[in-house]
Amino acid sequence: MSKKTVTIKAFRFNAETDYLPYYKKYEMEVGKDELILDLLNRIKWEHDGSFSYRRSCRHGICGACGIKVNGKATLACKQNAMDLVELFGDELVFEPQSQKRAVKDMIIDKGDFWEKHAAVKPFVEADVDPHPTSETIMSKEQVENFLDADYCIQCGACHYACPVIEVNEDYLGPAAFAAAYRFTVDPRDDAGKERLETTAELGSGVWDCVKCFECAEACPKDVNPIEKITKLHNMQFEQGVAKRNVATKHAEGFVRSIKKFGYLDEQDIVLYSEGLGVVKHLSEAFKMIKAGKVHPFDIAKKKMPRSKNLDEIQKLIEISQKNEL
Amino acid sequence: MSQLKYALYTGCTARESTPELLSSTLAVAKKLGIEIVLLDEASCCGASHLQDFDEFLSLVLNARNICYAEKLGLPMITICNTCQLNTVMTKERLDNDPEMKAKVNEKLAEVGLEYKGTSSVRHFLYALIDDYGLENIKEKVEVPLSHFNIAPFYGCHNLRPSHIHYKHNTPLAPDSEIGEGGGESSIQEVELMEKYTHESPYTPTSLDSLIEALEGKSVDYESKNKCCGFHVDLQAPETSNALSGTALLDAIDNNADLMVTPCPLCQLNMDLKQESAGKQLGRDIELPVLHMPQMVALALGCSKEEIGLKFNVTKATDLM
User: Fold this and answer.
1) Predicted ipTM?
2) Burial class of A169 by CB neighbour count within 10 A (0 to 12, 13 to 18, 19+)
3) Which pLDDT score, from 0 to 100, does residue A72 have?
4) pTM recorded for the entire structure
5) How confident is the model over A155-206, as pLDDT tens digits?
6) Segments in B200-299 forming alpha helices (H)
7) Are the beta carbons of A71 and B192 separated by less than 8 Å?
C-alpha cells in the first residue's frame, strides 16, 4: 500500500476579486515520498492553474513555501505529506500562514514580518577595515553560540504561529528575536546594546512573550526561538540594559520570594512587581478572597508555606545567583 | 499491577491559591491506591520567570528539587504544566551537558546534594493514563460524568516543545532502564512522528481520553491546545485576556458545560479572569474551570472537601 487517497481542502482567496475566502476540495492519490510542495504543485498543474503559492529553492533554504496544514506551521518543501496524513487523517487543510494577511490563496503579505525583522538590525554592524591584513578569527565556542540561530531562513513559520503576533501588532515576534540574539552574540558586532534595548521595550519586546513554545514547535530549521528569547532576557540583566518595570521586577521578584519561603509568594510578587499599579488587581483579589483562596489577614500575617531545609535554598541562591536588577 | 509510588512535586500554586488542586490530587491517589510522598523540601521551579532573570540559578534550584526525588529513589510527578516543563528542561540540560552538570553539582555539593539524573519527571496526568491505565480508572468510576460536556484545555507546557516532552511524559521506563541519566539525542535528530506518537501538540488526546474514561463527553474545539496567556498577565493583560477569553468562548460556543485543565496556572487565569476577558471581548463569559484531579475526584466519588469546588472562583459547586 504505497498510495493513499487524500482530500485536500485548500483555502482560496483573491484579495482583488473575492469578498470572502472559501475552501475548495481536491482529491488525489498521494505516494509515500511526496512532499506538501508536490501536492501544492499538483493542485496547480492537474486541477487549477490559477492556484497560487510561493516556491523557489525546493530544498528548505529559501523560506518561501511556508503554509499551514491543519493549523500546523509547515515548510512545504521539507514536509513529507504522509506524515501529516498520519497525524491529521486523510483530509489535509491547506491554509496561508496568516489568513488576515492573505493576498491570493497561500500567498500572504509578509510586510509585517520584514519590517519587524529589520527593526532589530539583523546584520553585523561593525567598523570594518576595508583593507584588512588578517582574517577575523572566531573560536569554536563563539560560533556555536549563534550557529543554530543562524539557520533561520526567515520563512515566517514561527512568526505566524505566535499567538502574541495575532493580538499585539507592536510585538516584534520570535523570528526577529532569534535574529537579534544571533547578531548580538557575534563577536564582530557592535550594535548589541542597541538590540538589547530594542528588545527590552514593553509592548514590542521579549517581555511580551507568553511562553507558549509555539515558535519552537513551528520552526522547520530547529532554531528554537524561545530559547533565544530566554537568552535575551538574561543578557538584559547581565549587560545592565534591564530597566526596573513591572516585567523585570516580576522576574527578579522570584528570587526575593524563594529566598524567604522557598515557594513563590503569590501575593507579594504581584504587589512587588506592580507597585501602585496593584490597584487594578483589586477586583480579582476580592474574587479570590470570596472563594476562600486568599485570606485577607494572611497578607499581614505572612502565613506562607515554607520549604523544608530552607537554609539550603538560601545558601544556593547566595552562591549561585549571577544577575541583579 | 504493583503498587504505584511517586514523589509529588506540588509547586507553589497548589500550596497557596489553589488548595483544591492538592487536596483533589491526594484524594484521587488515595482512591486509586497510589502512594504519594510529598517533596516538602522542594522550592519554586521559577515558572520561566526566574529563568529569564538568572538561568543558572534556576538550573541549580530545579536540580535540587529533583535531587530529593532521587534520594527517595522515586519517580517524580508534577501537578502543574509549568513545573513539569521547567523541571524537565533542567533535567534535559544537565543530562546532556556534562560541563553544566558539573557546575551545578559543584554548587549542590555545598549543601550536601548531588544531581544524578536517576528520577524520571512526569505530569500526574500521564502517570494516571500510562501507569495506572484508563481501563483501570474506568472500573473505579462511582459518579459517571455522563451528563457533562467537558472541554479539555491542555496547557502549553505539557505539549510544547515536543522535542523535550516526548522523552519525559511517556510511559514509565522499567526500573532496569532508569538510572542511565542522559545520553539523549539532540533536537535535530528527532523524526517528526517520533516526537508526536505519545502526545501530539497539534492533535493531543490524553485529556480527551481521560474525560471519556470518566464517561464524560469531551468537547472538540480549536483552542484546546492554545495558550491562555498567563505568563504576561502582569505586563500585558490585554494579551492575556484576549487569549484566555478566546479559548473560553470557543469552548462555550461548542456547548461546553465546564472546562478542565492539568495546569493550575491555566486554571487560575481562565477561572479568575472571566469577567475582565469578557469585558475586553464584549461577551459574557461564565464557565466553571476545573483542575484535572478535581474532575477525576468528582467521578471517583471523593468527598466535597477533597474536591474543593468551593475554591473555584467561577461557580462550580453545582457540578456535584
Assistant:
1) 0.95
2) exposed
3) 98
4) 0.95
5) 999 999 999 999 999 999 999 999 999 999 999 999 999 999 999 999 999 9
6) 206-213, 237-253, 264-272, 274-281, 292-299
7) no
Least confidently predicted of A96-100, B81-85, B169-173, B208-212: B169-173
Distance between CA atoms of residues B157 and B13, nearest Å: 15
User: Distance between the two ends of chain A, CA-based, in angstroms?
Assistant: 61
What CA–CA distance (Å, rounded) separates B65 from A313? 10
CB-CB: which of B13, B160, B229 is closest to A214? B160
**B147 in contact with A at a CB cutoff of 8 Å?**
no
The β-bridge partners of B9 are B78
Tell me how far apart the alpha carbons of residues A237 and A240 are, in angstroms, rounded to a whole number.
Answer: 5
In chain A, what residues touch B44 (CB-CB under 8 Å)?
254, 257-258, 262-264
* Segment holding A68, helix H or strand E: strand A66-69
CB count within 10 Å of CB B276 equals 19
Please, which residues 177-206 of chain B have a Cβ atom closer than 8 Å to chain A?
Answer: 187-188, 192-193, 196, 200-203
Indicate whether B233 pLDDT > 80: yes
What does the pLDDT look like over B236-283, one tens digit per residue?
999 999 999 999 999 999 999 999 999 999 999 999 999 999 999 999
Answer for the pair B280, B238: CB distance below 8 angstroms, yes or no: yes
Residues 6 or more apart from A137 whose CB is under 8 A from it?
Answer: none
- Worst-scoring range by mean pLDDT, A145-149, A232-236, B172-176, B227-231? B172-176
Percent of chain B having pLDDT more than 90?
90
| Amino acid at the residue B150 | I
Task: Quickly list H helices, A190-308.
Answer: 192-200, 214-218, 225-238, 246-261, 266-274, 282-290, 296-301
What residues of chain A lie within 8 A of the CB of B162, using their CB?
Answer: 217
Count of residues in chain A: 325
- What pLDDT, on a 0 to 100 scale, did the predictor assign at position B50? 98
One-letter amino acid at B142 equals E
Nearest to B44 among A72, A263, A283 (CB): A263
- Only one residue has cell 533542567, namely B90
